[in-house]
Write a structure and sequence with these properties.
This protein has helices spanning 3-12, 18-26, 30-40, 43-55, 59-70, 75-88, 91-98, 107-120, 124-131, 138-147, 154-173, 181-193, 197-209, 216-228, 232-241, 248-257, 261-274, 279-291, 295-302, 314-323, 327-335, 339-344, 349-359, 363-371, 378-391, 395-404, 410-419, 423-428. With 437 residues, the chain is mainly alpha-helical. Among the domains are: 1-98, Serine Threonine Protein Phosphatase 5, Tetratricopeptide repeat, CATH 1.25.40; 230-296; 306-355; 362-437, Serine Threonine Protein Phosphatase 5, Tetratricopeptide repeat, CATH 1.25.40. The radius of gyration is 27 Å and the shape is flat.
């Protein structure tokens, strides 16, 4: 077992896909998943098995499943192992497992994992001290603020964050490139949660107005801060007069939360009518109308964009309707399109049509259509056809088709085999991690 293989599994969902692991566990194949974790050195099997074992109170077995992975030093496995040990009550062993040894490549990330376990163990001050040498790394500075929320350490955290925020402001004033822009945003966050809301708004507002950081995240933090505290007029000024796009969504949310949804709708409709690039605001309008339960109005609001090649919202509308069970209506939106649009969108419209047909109980119509689509190559057609066959209850045909495919369809095949309670065949259909090399 090595960290390279583990990273590959995590990054590319290699090995046994989490969906297959969950399907096996849901059908009671825990022991098989435990065995696969060890024999196949499969991280997702180990993680799923450990989760179910912990739920059953079998912490010792869960630790034995994860221990070989954690012993590689790979941080996600180290963190998962520590969680098991903490839940088991083995606090000192958990801390020993995650304590940085100075040899790991990502020392800062190792300190982050260690600090997280320290907080879980109730050792907040030690956790803070662990991160102090790394606070010029904005990821770890952000984590410091995050992990101490609700821990009664706000003044202590302000003492650490404020000097970094002031340094960022000085660097900006001197025309130097600042690398601590998040410190200003994080200072405001700690001020807010400690009850000093006016100070947080004034400070972060000044930073944004002076453009002391080009980070979009800081502007978003500011407008969300205003929205949380009902500063509607400030948001309106930013959104309309200052033309700050980031302010529109928080403004709409603030108006809606204040019981002024009609005002939010009118604001968006007026702005859409006045701008040449309205797609971002039409999305906000659609989402607002959906939250109000006005699905037909939401579709109508974005329908002018449906055949726009650059800012079209057809797919968004289709998915919105499908998520709410309106598959026939979503299918109708696709079928109403012009021949020119359908030709230009051949890379996604047909597959969405077949999916919607299946969800509407018309699997066989979709199957007949895809079987007579001469433009489809087998590698495009066969996985979709197998899915449709499975949706139609024809699992044996779907499995036979996937077995005959030349492409890599192990996960899809495994899912169908699990549905037929053929777990050993399901695992055999997925190449082992070691086979990739």
């Amino acid at each position: 077992m090595n960290t390279e293989n583990l990273e590959w599994q995590a990054d590319s969902y290699g090995g046994v896909n989490p969906q297959v692991v969950d399907a096996l566990l849901e059908r009671g194949y825990l022991e098989l998943v435990v065995q696969a974790a060890g024999e196949r050195e499969d991280w997702f099997c180990a993680r799923g098995a450990a989760r179910d074992l912990c739920t059953a109170g079998e912490f010792g077995r869960a630790w034995e499943v994860v221990r070989p992975f954690a012993e590689t030093g790979w941080l996600p496995a180290v963190s998962a192992g520590a969680d098991i040990l903490l839940e088991w009550g083995r606090i000192e062993e958990a801390l020993a497992l995650v304590r940085p040894d100075g040899a790991r490549r990502e020392q800062g990330e190792a300190c982050k994992v260690y600090a997280q376990v320290l907080v879980q163990a109730g050792q907040v001050d030690t956790a803070i001290a662990t991160l102090v040498p790394h606070l010029r790394d904005e990821r770890l500075l952000s984590f410091l603020v995050e992990m101490t929320e609700g821990q009664g350490r706000d003044e202590q955290i302000l003492d650490l964050v404020t000097p970094l925020a002031e340094e960022a402001r000085r660097m900006h004033a001197e025309g130097r490139r600042e690398s601590l822009g998040r410190a200003m945003d994080l200072q405001a966050r700690v001020l807010e949660r400690s009850g000093r809301v006016e100070e947080a708004i004034a400070g972060l507002g000044a930073d944004v107005a002076a453009r002391r950081s080009s980070a979009e995240i800081m502007r978003m933090s500011y407008v969300r801060l205003l929205a949380r505290h009902g500063r509607i007029e400030d948001l309106r000024q930013m959104a309309t007069a200052d033309q700050e796009d980031a302010a529109f969504e928080p403004l709409v949310t603030a108006l809606e939360n204040a019981g002024r949804a009609e005002e939010a709708e009118a604001l968006l409709r007026d702005y859409i009518a006045a701008t040449h690039c309205p797609a971002n605001y039409q999305v906000l309008l659609m989402e607002l109308l959906v939250r109000q339960g006005r699905l037909d109005d939401a579709v109508e609001a974005v329908s002018p964009t449906f055949e726009d090649p650059w800012n079209g919202l057809l797919e968004s509308a289709v998915l919105m309707l499908a998520e709410r069970g309106r598959h026939e209506q979503a299918l109708g939106l696709l079928e109403e399109r012009s021949p020119e649009f359908l030709e230009e969108s051949a890379h996604w419209v047909p597959s969405n049509r077949w999916w919607l047909m299946a969800e509407s109980g018309r699997c066989r119509d979709a199957i007949a259509e895809i079987e007579t689509a001469p433009e489809l190559e087998p590698e495009e057609r066969d996985p979709v056809l197998a899915w449709l066959l499975a949706q139609d209850g024809r699992l044996d045909e779907a499995i036979d088709l996937l077995r005959s495919c030349s492409g890599e369809h192990g996960t899809q095949l495994a899912e169908l085999l699990v549905r037929q309670n053929r777990p050993l065949e399901a695992l055999a259909a997925i190449p082992r991690v070691a086979a990739r090399s």
